[in-house]
Structure formats: structure tokens, C-alpha cells
Amino acid sequence: MKQYETVIGLEVHVELATKTKIFCGCSTEFGGAPNTHTCPVCTGMPGSLPVLNKKVVEFALKAGLAANCQIHQYCKFDRKNYFYPDNPQNYQISQLYLPICHDGWVEIETSAGKKKIRIHEMHMEEDAGKLIHDEWEDCSLVDYNRSGVPLIEIVSEPDMRSSEEVIAYLEKLRCMMQYLGVSDCKLQEGSMRADVNLSVREVGAEEFGTRTEMKNLNSFKAIARAIEGERERQIELIEEGKAVTQETRRWDDNKEYSYAMRSKEDAKDYRYFPDPDLPPIHISDAWIEKIKAEQPELREVKQARYQEEYGLPAYDAGILTESRHLAGLFEETAAIYGNAKKTANWFMGEVLRLTKDKAMDAEQVSFSPKHLADLLVMVEKSEVSPQNAKKVFEKVFEEDIDPVVYIEEHGLKIVEDTGLLEETINRILDANPGPLSELLGGKDKVMGFFVGQIMKEMKGKANPASVRETLMKEVEKRK
């Protein structure tokens, strides 16, 4: 039986997090009322002229340098000509002949180990508008708010061989862009989109098979399903002696099936030519060096530093660095509290648990590092029980309250009243003669039952160590 190999390359579109669009001053904010973030430039009105947003070039350089790309210090924009209702000019301003970045690579890690994925190029371009299909009115409406939002398109070489490698590559790009601060990469808002170019060939063959391009992929799970579905479809065609057609296909994630949209275009079909309204871009050595000097610490470097500087296990360092924002909160908290390992334990437990329970993005977490550090100090000094501290932290997490004030106002501070503790212990021992008899008979496991009952009676305001010590004394008296 023939064995087949999947060959995959990706075209990843990343919306840049500039405040204004690539060639005009309109807002790039997501979610505005339709056609409210528009002007004559981004709606393609005759006579309007584009003016390049310098921040777009800066963000593209940041991304390219982080992905080990070469920089075209002389680059320019081209017009990609095609008609589509959400493309108001009937052309898209992009880069074909001299893209800003080229010949880079990123390293991914999968169950099979590490692998370099080559990047053919990374170029700047403008986004198109968005078509909204109204099934009730049987019509399509267009919203031009997204038209002119700056993009970088990252074109990989066909180096990936499985959906696992594709997802690892996309996660690597997303994390990198978020760390750089050039994009939020929210797939659900369309600020990161991937088109999958896929072909299959017999294992050992040197020539690539006929590729198809799949669009409409808005989640990593959809991308993985689309890859498996298209792989099976192409193999089935080959096994039946039929030819795979080079075409663009649209993936329907609900039906888990793709269908043909149009024949796959090549560059010549778009009749590219240099944009006459935009002058070439000259990128100086000094500008590149300045951006290199300003690059933030990326995840891999941060992971290694956490292990070396804080003595954290590799797993913990990996989890804590998944989000640049959460990593920042962790570092600030650890610096104030003075104990990185205990801070890491709290983040790995309570912070991530609450983030998951409340279905929040990591970037939405907004408590003050000082408030968490103050709470951890109180736990360490036995001024509040660990159980009550977790309850207090939920308030810190939700409302960023001052835990010191909250604990004082709600009477949650541990009470060091020996008389009250002895009285409570004896009352509970008297109320539970059966377990007391077992404890007196040498069944030490019953000790946990009594400690729990005492802590409950004291409403978590007793020091667990004091409870256990005093309980043992009172039990000894009864022997």
C-alpha cells in the first residue's frame, strides 16, 4: 500500500496593533459601528492619496528581526489588481518585488523534537473590508472599517509535514507577535488569519504534488481539522486515478468539508506593478540597530532566565511565560514579595485557575502585583490562613481590593487567643466522643478530622500550627 507525505506551507496574515491605518488616519479599533472608521483614502475614493504610517514599517521590522529575517533596506509597494466588493480600489497595496523582510526562520518544538521552519518573506500590505452575508434579506453588505488596517503577511516555505507542526508554528508566531507588542493575534477578531497551502506526494518522492489553498480558517482547531480533511480528500483522488486541481477552497468547519471557490491564482494573474502614489522606503542601518536595541526579551530567553535566576522547573517557566502580560505580573509580584518560587506556585495555582474559570484572556487580568505580594506576606507571617487567603485573592482578582484592609474589615485575621482556642478544642472533643475514643486509642488519622472541625468553628481565623499543637496538648490531658 502506498504511503503519502503531506507538504504544507502557510500564508499568515497578522493585523498590526497601530492606532491608525496604514495609509490614512482612521482608527483601527475593532468593533465600531459599520463604516464609521473610514475616509476617502481607505474607501478608495478617486483623487485620494495614501501616506505611509511609519509605525507600520517599525512593527514589520520588529517582526522580521525576531524571525531571523534579512531586511531589504530599499523596498517599495506594489499594486495587486483584482475585483472584489470588499476591495474598494479594485487593487490592494502590497509588496511583491521587494518585500521588507525575507529569508528568515523560526524554530518549533513538537513531539518529534525541534525543527526550523523557513520563512520565504514577510511583507506589508493593507487589509480589505469585510462582507456580511444577510440570509434573511438575501443580500450581502460591506463594512469598510477593516479596509486599510495594516497587515504583515508571513509566507513560509513548504517545510511543514503535519497539523501538529502547523499548530506549533502558528503558536510560535502568535506568541512572538504578542511579546513584540506588534499584534494581539486574536483569531476570533481576525487579527491573525492563516491560509493553508497543502499537497500530498508519495513518501520518498522529490517533486511536490499539486497544491490547494484553504481559506476561512479562524481557529487552531479548525486549521488542524482542515489539514486532515484536505489530506484525505487529495489522497482519495490520487488513489482513484484522478488529478488534484490547483484551486482555492473554502473550509466549512461545521460540515468538516472544503469546497472549491476559484482556480488558484499566480502572481501574473494579479498584474502587479509598482504603486505610483507611494515612494520607495529607505531603511537606514541606524534605524535597524535602534529597533534591535529596543527588542523585548522573547519567550525562549525569558524561560531560560526563569530557570536560572529563579530556580524554577522548565515546566513552570514554560507555563508562566505563555503570556507576556502574565509574565510581567509574575515578575513584579516576585520582586515585591521577594520569593519567586512561592509567587510562581500561587500563579500556577490560583491565578491561572481563576483566569480559566472566568474564561478570561491572560491580557484581561489586571490586579495589582503589590496587592498579591501583600497577601502572600500575610500568609507567610500566619496573619491569615491559606484557605481564607484564597478567598481574599478572588476579590483581589476581580476587584483589585487592598487585601490588608479587606482582611481587617472582615475579621479574617488569625486570632492568637490561647484561651479561646482551648475552649473551642475542648467543646469539639466533648461533642465527638467516638472520634475522640479512636484518637485516644492511637488512630492518628482522626487528628485531621478534629483540626478541620476546629478551623471551621474558628472560621479559618486560627493558626493551623497552633491548632494542632494545642489539640495534642488537650488530648494528652485526657489520656
UniProtKB/TrEMBL annotation:
The keyword Kinase appears for this protein: no
BP GO annotations: glutaminyl-tRNAGln biosynthesis via transamidation; translation
Which keywords fit this entry according to its UniProt record?
ATP-binding, Ligase, Nucleotide-binding, Protein biosynthesis, Transferase
Q: Which Pfam families match?
A: GatB_N, GatB_Yqey
- Name of encoding gene: gatB
- UniProt protein name: Aspartyl/glutamyl-tRNA(Asn/Gln) amidotransferase subunit B
- InterPro entries, sorted: Asn/Gln-tRNA_amidoTrfase_suB/E, Asn/Gln-tRNA_Trfase_suB/E_cat, Asn/Gln_amidotransferase, Asn/Gln_tRNA_amidoTrase-B-like, GatB, GatB_C_1, GatB_Yqey_C_2, Gln-tRNA_amidoTrfase_suB_CS
Instruction: Provide a Gene Ontology MF annotation, just one.
Output: glutaminyl-tRNA synthase (glutamine-hydrolyzing) activity
Q: What is its EC number?
A: 6.3.5.-
